[in-house]
Write a structure and sequence with these properties.
alpha/beta, Rossmann fold, 8 strands, globular
Length: 273
């Protein structure tokens, strides 16, 4: 299968302990922001596709304690981390399975709801993934999709080297078959696979010194750390020289200083099968 899936060698961010920490930092900093309004009813059968290390799973399970959540990922190592996180949180409403989103081991109509977050951006065929996920949802069920869009980033002080570093991540992800600008595509993607009543809500993260939790949790530990994590790949690919890269990363961290500002937009889409 030529799809790039979470768990494949083409996952641009890698599988280091540092990357696992970044995913958890991201989920922690944005818990209420991203999950607001996402609550599943008692007895609801929910599939979380591409759960990774469980960064979103804990919040899903906690917010819908009487729903029955099935969390899948292609990476056995990530699933083990996710199991430990859910167990440590004292949650018992999640079942984990190792599975590829393009080859799900469930009959059509097995679930009432699908939740997928920060996965489509890594796939060569996001429409194909959504089509497969739609098939396992019963008629009248729902699908919720959350993705970012690196092209939505803006900040103060503005800096061309910081822009260059961000573009390196965009280019590397495109080269691996993904699309880190996919947030802006969610509406046409969901409509293309036949979902109805599709609604997309842009959710802008605005960070300045009056939000110290977001300065640390998002600007530094999520976004800057994400860009910084592709340093070796960017240099090896010749996308940037070392001096420009170092200046760019320093400039991203500069936006986390007391007079800095950082903004980024996520897109949350929902539709009915």
């Amino acid at each position: 299968m030529d799809h790039t899936t979470i768990g494949s060698p083409d996952y641009v961010h890698g599988y280091t302990p540092r990357e696992r920490d970044r995913l958890v930092d991201q989920a922690t900093a944005l818990t209420d922001f991203l999950h607001s309004g996402t609550v599943f009813p008692a007895g609801g059968r929910v599939l979380e596709a591409g759960c990774g290390v469980g960064a979103q799973t804990v919040t899903l399970a906690r917010n819908s304690p009487e729903a029955r959540i099935t969390a899948v990922d292609i990476s056995a190592d990530s699933l083990e981390v996710a199991r430990r996180r859910v167990a440590a949180a004292g949650l018992a409403n999640v079942t984990f399975h190792q599975a590829d989103v393009f080859d799900l081991p469930y009959p059509d109509g097995s679930f009432d709801h699908v939740f997928i977050c920060f996965v489509l951006e890594h796939l060569r065929d996001p429409e194909g993934a959504l089509d497969r996920l739609r098939a396992v949802v019963r008629p009248g069920g729902t699908m919720t999709v959350i993705e970012g869009d690196h092209g939505s980033t803006y900040f103060h002080p503005e800096d061309p080297d910081a822009r260059r570093a961000i573009q390196c991540l965009v280019d590397l992800q495109a080269a691996s078959g993904g699309d880190s600008l996919i947030g802006r595509r969610l509406y046409p993607l969901l409509v293309a696979v036949g979902l109805g009543d599709v609604e997309v809500v842009p959710k802008m993260v605005y960070v300045d010194a009056s939000h110290p939790d977001l300065v640390e949790g998002f600007t530094r530990n999520t976004f800057a750390a994400m860009v910084q994590g592709v340093r070796d790949k960017a240099l090896a690919a010749g996308l940037v020289d070392r001096a420009t890269w170092d200046r760019g990363i320093a400039a991203l961290h500069r936006t986390a200083e007391p007079d800095g500002v950082f903004c980024y937009t996520f897109f949350k889409a929902a539709g009915i099968v």
